[in-house]
Amino acid sequence: MAPTALAALHHAAKSAVLAALSLSLTQLARTGTLNRYIAPKLELGVKLSALALFALAVFRLWIALRAWQGDDAEADCGCGAHGPAAAGPRQLAVYAMFLLPIAFGLLPAVPLGSADAARAGIHLHGAAAEHPQRSDTSADAEAFPFDEFTRPYAELARRLHALPLIDVPEPLYIETLSSIDLYRKAFAGHRIRLTGFVHRDSGATDGVYLLSRFAVSCCPADARAYGLPVLDAQAKQRRTDEWLTVEGVLEEGVYDGQPALVLRAEQTRSAPPPASPYVYLDPDF
Q: Are 15 and 61 in contact (CB under 8 A)?
């Protein structure tokens, strides 16, 4: 093959790889499945990178057309180091490596579930697991003591404590459970409603399962599973990985040898898996 034709072929192959990467990211964004791979705070950067990849693909295609016409733009420097490599299995393997992310993207994006929680372990305590140091002697601080780190959890706990029913919200899922866990005695006897998937581990006894969610910082690779023990008269009928919304009363108890709040279920219903299977720490909390 003539050098100019070979150069054009390489440039065209690079353009095709860049375009394929751009289109695969665009498809994930269009179908709303980017949240299966990355946290929402990263989505804008990924979408912009898809535009950048498409622009590079167009530019590389322009270079391929110039090379086909005998004018290889990358060889204009005259150093002789830009000659095209021979087209063969080795070069094809190099280009194929860049297509691997696309191949993985074509696989069904299955959210993390109970099996993953069993491998990684599940956390009964939230981000503010350390008991806070008392900051003052006011009546409010007696119920919700705090230090510099746990001040926002104490403030959230005060607001939650005034509610007749704590409906755990998606945006503050981990922060809400962390605040409740931090002040267990204050929240014993309070009503709560939350949604999660059923998980059973070695600490689960008859009539108890963990209602769990995965918290993600950047991507599922750094996910941590959080759970709240649920005491449910129908626990044996609940399927592992089944999504449930449970409403009931919090009680002080023990799970797997650790002190923990236990949710005594009073109303339980099946719930559809949420559009975003994961919850995220609020960066502004």
A: yes
Please list, in sequence order, all residues whose beta carbon lies within 8 angstroms of the beta carbon of residue 236, skipping any fewer than 6 positions away.
206, 207
- Amino acid identity for residue 244 in this structure: L
Distance CA(20)–CA(197), nearest Å, equals 35
DSSP character at residue 127: T
Rg (CA), the chain: 27
pTM > 0.85: no
| Cα→Cα distances 284→126, 149, 152, 159, 173, Å | 17, 14, 10, 17, 14
Torsion, CA 238, CA 241, CA 243, CA 244, rounded to 10: 30
Instruction: Please state, in angstroms and rounded to a whole number, the distance separating the CA atoms of residues 9 and 84.
Output: 9
Determine the average pLDDT of the residues in 208-212. 92
Q: What is the residue-wise DSSP string for 182-212? A: HTHHHHTT-EEEEEEEEE--TT--TTEEEEE
Which amino acid, 239? R
Q: Which two tokens stand for residue 192?
A: 């709560």
When pLDDT is averaged across residues 13-30 and rounded to a whole number, the result is: 89
Instruction: Tell me how far CA of residue 27 lies from CA of 18, 94, 237, 253, in angstroms.
Output: 14, 24, 39, 47
pLDDT tens track for 222-273: 888 888 999 998 988 899 999 999 999 999 988 878 888 999 999 999 999 8
- C-alpha–C-alpha distance, residues 83 and 279, integer Å: 50
Integer distance in angstroms from the first to the last C-alpha of the chain? 62
Q: What is the pLDDT of residue 98?
A: 79
- In the chain, count H helices and then E strands: 8, 8
Burial class from Cβ neighbours inside 10 Å (0-12, 13-18, 19+) for residue 93 reads exposed
d(CA 217, CA 195): 20
CB 246 within 8 A of CB 197: no
